Amino acid sequence: MWAVPLPQPRLERLLDDHARELGAGLRRGHEAAGVGQDDATVTADVRGPDGRYQVTARYLVGCDGAHGRVRDTAGIPFPGTTYPEVNRLGQVTVPDSVTRLDSGDLDVPGLGRIRAGFTRTDHGVFGFGTLTSGALLVQTTEDEPAEPPKQAMTRQ
After folding, report:
1. 51 lies in which domain range?
2. Max intra-chain CA distance, the chain
3. Residue 118 and which of 6, 33, 40, 60 are 20 to 30 A apart at CA?
4. What is the pTM of this model?
C-alpha cells in the first residue's frame, strides 16, 4: 500500500480537472435533497447557494462517503466496512506565538510543551510531525464518537 503526501487542495484540483475533461459538471457547496431516475436519466433535487433547483443527467456521482445522502436516497447499499472511530488528517501552519523546539516538539502558550509523535488521550489519539515544507502534519483519532461527523473539515 502506498501513501502519497499530496495536499488535499491539490488532489481535489487534479480530480476536478480530470472530471471536467471527461465532460462532468461539478457543483461544490450544493446539497442533493432528493434523487430520482427513469430508464434514461437521473434527476437530483438540489439545494444550492441561490436556492433549490433540479438537474437532470445520464449519471449522478455522489462523492459523499459511507453515510452519504446521495447513496442512501438512491437506495445504493454500502457493502464496505465502517469503523466506529473518526480519523482526521491535515497539513497546518502554526502562529508565530508557538515555538518549534529542536526536538520537533512545540511550546504552545497556555498549554506548554506538546510532544511530537503520537499521544494517547482519554478519547483517542493525537499526533503531529513536521513535513519537509515546514508545515505540520496533524492527525487525530476520536475512538467512538456519539455519531459520525456532519460536515467536512475546511481550510481556514
Report:
1. 8-74
2. 64
3. 6
4. 0.53
